[in-house]
Amino acid sequence: MRILAIETSCDETSMALVDMGINDSSQINMTIHGHFTASQAQYHAQFGGVFPAMAKLEHIKACLPLTHTIFAESKISIPEDKWININLNVDQIENINKILHREIELASGLVQFCKTESFPKIDLIAVTNGPGLEPALYVGINFARALSEIMNVPVVGANHMLGHLYSSILPTDTMHENILLKDIPNHAIALLVSGGHTELIEILGGPTSRYKLLGATVDDAVGEAYDKVARLMGLGYPGGPLVAKLAQEKRERPKTLETSNYKLETIKLPRPMLHSKNYDFSYSGLKTAVMYYLRDNPIKNEDDKLALAYEFEEAAIEVLVKKTTKAIDESGADTLLVGGGVSANNYLRNQLQKSGEENNFTVHFPLQSLTGDNALMIALASGIEYLNKEIIDQKDTIKANGMLSVA
Ligand code: KG4
Ligand code: ZN
Known about the structure:
By secondary structure, the chain is an alpha/beta fold. It is 41% helix and 19% strand. It contains twelve helices and 13 strands. It has helices spanning 41-44, 52-74, 90-99, 104-116, 134-151, 160-166, 222-232, 240-252, 284-296, 302-331, 346-359, 375-386, and strands at residues 2-7, 12-22, 28-39, 83-85, 118-120, 124-130, 155-159, 179-180, 187-193, 198-204, 210-216, 335-339, 362-364. The strands form three sheets. It has a six-stranded mixed sheet with strand order 7-6-1-2-3-8, with helices on both faces. The chain starts with a strand and ends in a 21-residue tail after the last helix. The site of zinc ion has 5 residues, from helix 6. The site of 5'-O-[(R)-(carboxyoxy)(hydroxy)phosphoryl]adenosine has 20 residues, from helix 7 and helix 8.
């Protein structure tokens, strides 16, 4: 099954073109023809967060150049006779204009695009329909519907969080062709950690999975807490990697070099909901504790910065690891899948790996390059779903749902 996947839920525009199939041993294989992500993060940095109207405009601008890029990349691996030239008729042009009436500059660009580019024959267009920013999601959805009109291919919606969930089943040591995916576990826990989500999900039943949301943040997501703490400390955006880098420097630094005015043992930040009986999280209190700490103890030098970043990360990650381990233990699952932007964090990876060794569960992480938002994970999640399920075209029914959940 050849899938074109589109992701525009937040501040990355991403497209992927892949083949997915099942071999005689029921293993899923994948060939990646093209995959490209255009990030807008630099435009949003001045606002310290994603600005929805700007995100929408940047997605509109990126759609056609990205399509061109992944088509060009795919020409290497998709044979010439699998490409078609498109001659749009008047009805199709009218439908494209209707579908893209809110992205009208994209409509005219797309009609022009059809005159100069050939299109690969594909079986399915998968587009993220939530969760995320609805104005941003609609750019991808409407672009997918317009492509479906042109290519006469069904469109289906994909859940962004299932994309993050399945991003870790791609093996790490692969080239682009004939990749054998890791087996999809029959019973697993997923820890999804990003700028908008902190979720523990139970996966039951392998590829035809049922998902159960065990717990989620009741306020800020863990990535959001990293970003807010970075802002309080005067670092840049997105702040997660910057705070993590400082914390890591502190961890690796010989104690003899310390010149900090901060007495590390006196910075004791809370571990919110560490001992709560459920699987929920809370990160807004931790951020507020950092705010008060900084008010009373302004940063005087680089070492102070390192010490505060370190204690924040210890607190944030201790809760994630303890709750995830508890979910594994109480559910009886033997596998952990980790995904989302914060899964790039090496300390989180080390701590989860350590817990896996101590408590006998296997942990899968995505490639570093697939921790952020990307369309390859959308292709993966959709392929896994529709290799096992009949495709029903959603071209005329698909809607964005900013709060879409997995269960
Ligand atoms: O999944 P993602 O790219 O976008 C959302 O769907 O939100 O996640 C972005 C989040 C941001 O909050 C960013 O600061 C955080 O992931 N992040 C990190 C690291 N790399 C990215 N947080 C902690 N440590 C990191 N190394
Ligand atoms: Zn995401």
